[in-house]
Design a protein that fits this description.
By secondary structure, this protein is α/β, with parallel strands linked by helices. It is built from 10 helices and 15 strands. The longest helix has 12 residues, at 73-84. The chain starts with 6 loop residues before the first strand and ends with a helix.
């Protein structure tokens, strides 16, 4: 039992839903967690859609997440740029997600930072080469996340991580990773709710990003066997989750709900 948990971080894709289909029992599980008065934060590495569209999707699927409960890498990237004094940024992402960076000045030349998010099929040599050149000219490389792959309705698909690594390798520079599994991601979320890591847990389907990241940050970590979960991948990772359950529907009883 994890009855000491006061704050629960819940991943979206693969945990609450896969594309437009809620995971069976997920809506009911979230309702039970709310009734238990847990502090909930819905955390995502998704960079294919804007924050507003993600909130709309959650509402449409029946989860009704409040704006303050949703934590996205775009908001944390803007904060990082403010702290570092970056004003001119190159945005490698789709036009919808660029809306989340409205307070920064987008540029294609002499950027202070290159911020890379999801482009899906639009990723290609010219896009990556242009980003590479700006990093070589001194721009900081900021990755909204660095996941290896994700689960679509038609199967596993490359995520942002492989493209980030290509630029890192070519430029001999490490990206500043904003989203999971960066420890700073978990630290900022917990600081915002005033809960210590020892009283928090993460629910996710990604053994590295969700589970490994949470454990390194001091949280308990609950791995669900939905979404991108693969038994062989979890076993080979060497990462030992605090608990492994079938789906988020099995999480409330672990927390005494």
């Amino acid at each position: 039992m994890l009855e000491h948990v006061r704050a629960l971080l819940v991943d979206l894709d693969g945990v609450l839903y896969v594309e437009d289909q809620p995971i069976p029992g997920a809506i009911e599980a979230v309702s039970r967690l709310r009734e238990h008065r847990l502090t909930l934060r819905f955390v995502t590495n998704t960079t294919a859609h804007s924050r507003g569209r993600t909130l709309d999707k959650l509402a449409r699927l029946g989860f009704g997440v409040d704006d303050r409960e949703l934590i996205t890498p775009t908001a944390l990237a803007v904060r990082h740029c403010r702290e570092r004094g970056h004003h001119r940024v190159a945005l490698v992402m789709n036009e919808e997600v660029k809306r989340d960076f409205a307070e920064l000045d987008e540029t294609n030349d002499r950027a202070d930072a290159v911020i890379i998010g999801d482009l899906g099929p639009a990723f290609g040599y010219e896009v990556l080469n242009h980003a590479f050149r700006q990093v070589m000219d001194g721009a900081e490389l900021i990755a909204l996340q660095k996941n290896r792959y994700w689960k679509r309705a038609d199967g596993l698909s490359l995520d942002l991580g492989p493209f980030v690594v290509a630029i890192e390798y070519a430029a001999s520079r490490d990206a500043y990773v904003v989203g999971k599994p960066a420890k700073g991601f978990f630290d900022q979320v917990l600081a915002s709710v005033g809960v210590d890591a020892s009283a928090a847990a993460m629910v996710g389907d990604d053994i590295e990003s969700d589970i490994g990241g949470a454990l390194r940050a001091g949280l308990a970590a609950i791995l669900v066997r939905t979404g991108k979960y693969r038994e062989d991948r979890a076993r080979e990772s060497g990462i030992q989750p605090t608990r492994v359950v079938g789906s988020i529907a099995d999480v409330p009883p672990l927390l005494g709900c």
